[in-house]
Every structure is written in structure tokens, then in C-alpha cells.
Amino acid sequence: MWKRVASLSPLISSKRSSTLNQAAYTFKRFESFTTETPAQGKVGMFFKGKTPFITFVLGGPGSGKGTQCEKIVENFGFTHLSAGDLLRREITSNTEDGAKILDTIKEGKIVHSEVTVKLIRKEIDSSDNYKFLIDGFPRSEENRIEFERITEAEPDIVLFFDCPEEEMVKRVLNRNQGRVDDNIDTIRKRLKTFESLNLPVVNYYSKRGKLYTINAVGTADEIFEQVRPVFAAHEELST
Ligand SMILES: Nc1ncnc2c1ncn2[C@@H]1O[C@H](COP(=O)(O)OP(=O)(O)OP(=O)(O)O)[C@@H](O)[C@H]1O
Ligand SMILES: Nc1ccn([C@H]2C[C@H](O)[C@@H](COP(=O)(O)O)O2)c(=O)n1
Ligand SMILES: [Mg+2]
């Protein structure tokens, strides 16, 4: 069954580390089509016949992705899949893959896309939910392309938490969760990786009109007040 849906069109902030215009969300209805029962094939099998709602959550290390995802889960019933958490879980499995992942993470580099996409896909496959926040993914164009190849799906929206570097460094150094990559040497490397590999992905989704840039400076509650309308509007439009 085909149904017409309306969608939000984000007003995109192109400035780095900018202060987001608080009125950054304009309703601009445009026509798109979706299906509640996807045709047989990878997408249908992958999502068990339900139309998925996929949000990619991007931002530098310590920009507050995980913190905001928790709030989105509480308020809008999404399932939170953190690519970093899935990889860290793999490290504890003591497999050969796990050892390689640990080395990559310590170096502030990106794990091979096939590994990460397989872990994400497995979580989606085993979930009863159809609304997903995929946090810290895609971290590179290679990640993005591999996700599209394996799932034949694209995100509905992409959040980008825009945060100045000095604030990200401060937050990560204060995090105190015992992460092997929360030290100043690895943080510097992660920031370089973010700049060179993740920002092209941000620009890609900006050009496709899917990006919501959030000013990630302020308290977590203040930031969530920018995030809330994005999801509230989508809920309203899909009912
Ligand atoms: N708005 C905020 N103001 C101050 N501290 C914050 C804010 N949001 C999150 N934090 C804190 O900053 C640290 C990093 O936040 P969080 O783990 O959510 O970031 P992240 O983007 O998921 O980072 P990473 O990419 O490294 O996983 C945490 O200790 C968190 O409690
Ligand atoms: N798509 C991804 C996501 C994460 N990683 C690795 C490299 C990151 O520095 C590390 C921690 O991720 P975070 O918890 O900060 O989101 O995990 C990756 O290789 N690919
Ligand atoms: Mg995180």
C-alpha cells in the first residue's frame, strides 16, 4: 500500500561550530512516497515488512550524541544503536576481530565498514522496533556506502551535533568512563579523523536536504529543546 507522507525540510547551517539559528526548523512540506509493506527483497526482509525510520546521529567525539540519544529514546521511543558501543562490545568478546577493533580505536581510526555494518544490521534484525537512532555512524563515506549496499536503505533524517573542538576535548577528558580512547593523544587523532572522514558525510546529507544541524553548546536540556521539534514534527506528520 502506498501512502503519501509529508516531511520536514531542515534549514541547514553551513557554518562550523556555529550557533544554530533557533528557528532552524522550517516546515516545508514536500512530497515523497513510502510504502508500509516494502516489496519482497532485502529491504522487506531486513525490516520485517515495516517501514523503518532511520536517524543517523553525527558529531565529533564528545559532542553529546549519546547523551541526546538517551533523551530521544525516552521521549520518542526509538531504539538506540551506538556503533562505538557495538564495537566495544565486540572487543570484550576476545575474538581476532575484537583485537583488531581495539587497535583501530586506540589509534582514533575507523573500523572496516563491513564489520560495523554487520553489527548494526544484526541489532536491527533482532529488534521489534522500527525506529532507530544509529549513533556515530556513518563515520566515513565508506561507512555510508557500505550501509546503503547492505541494507538498500537510506536514513530518513540525519542529526549533526555541531560543537567547538575545545568543548569536545573538555567533555571527553571529563567523561571518566574508562574508555581507552578518552586520552588527549587519541582525542587529537579522533578529531583529525572526524574532520577528514566524517565531515564529508555531513556535507553529503546537507546537500541531500536531510541534515539537521544542532548547536551542541549549552546544557543537555537546552540542546534537547532543539532536537525535540525535529522528532515531534515527524511524529505529527506520520499520524
Ligand atoms: N551539553 C552538555 N554539556 C556538558 N557536558 C555534556 C553535555 N552533553 C554531554 N555531556 C557530557 O560530555 C561527555 C560526552 O558526551 P557523550 O558521551 O554524549 O558524547 P558523544 O558524542 O557520544 O561522544 P563519543 O563520540 O566520544 O561517544 C559525557 O561525559 C557527557 O555526560
Ligand atoms: N562508525 C564507527 C563508529 C565508531 N568507530 C570506532 C572509532 C571511534 O573512535 C570509536 C568510538 O566511537 P564513539 O563511541 O565515539 O562513537 O569506535 C568506528 O570505527 N566506526
Ligand atoms: Mg557516544
TrEMBL record:
Binding site for ATP: G62, S63, G64, K65, G66, T67, R175, G218
GO molecular function, one term: phosphotransferase activity, phosphate group as acceptor
Single GO cellular component term: nucleus
Binding site for a ribonucleoside 5'-phosphate: R88, K109, I110, V111, G136, F137, P138, R139, R179, R190
Biological process terms in GO annotation: 'de novo' pyrimidine nucleobase biosynthetic process; nucleoside monophosphate metabolic process; pyrimidine nucleotide biosynthetic process
Cofactor(s) it depends on: Mg(2+)
Coiled-coil ranges (or none): none
Keyword field: ATP-binding, Cytoplasm, Kinase, Nucleotide-binding, Nucleus, Pyrimidine biosynthesis, Transferase
Compartmental location: Cytoplasm; Nucleus
List of residues binding CMP: N143
Catalysed reactions listed for this entry: UMP + ATP = UDP + ADP; CMP + ATP = CDP + ADP; dCMP + ATP = dCDP + ADP
Gene3D superfamilies given in the database record: P-loop containing nucleotide triphosphate hydrolases
CDD domains listed in its UniProt record: ADK
Free-text remark on how the cofactor is bound: Binds 1 Mg(2+) ion per monomer.
Pfam families on file: ADK
InterPro entries per UniProt: Adenylat/UMP-CMP_kin, Adenylat_kinase_CS, P-loop_NTPase, UMP_CMP_kinase
Protein EC: 2.7.4.14
Oligomer and partners: Monomer.
This protein's domain notes: Consists of three domains, a large central CORE domain and two small peripheral domains, NMPbind and LID, which undergo movements during catalysis. The LID domain closes over the site of phosphoryl transfer upon ATP binding. Assembling and dissambling the active center during each catalytic cycle provides an effective means to prevent ATP hydrolysis.
Family stated for the protein in its record: Belongs to the adenylate kinase family. UMP-CMP kinase subfamily.
Role according to the record: Catalyzes the phosphorylation of pyrimidine nucleoside monophosphates at the expense of ATP. Plays an important role in de novo pyrimidine nucleotide biosynthesis. Has preference for UMP and CMP as phosphate acceptors.
Protein name, UniProt field: UMP-CMP kinase
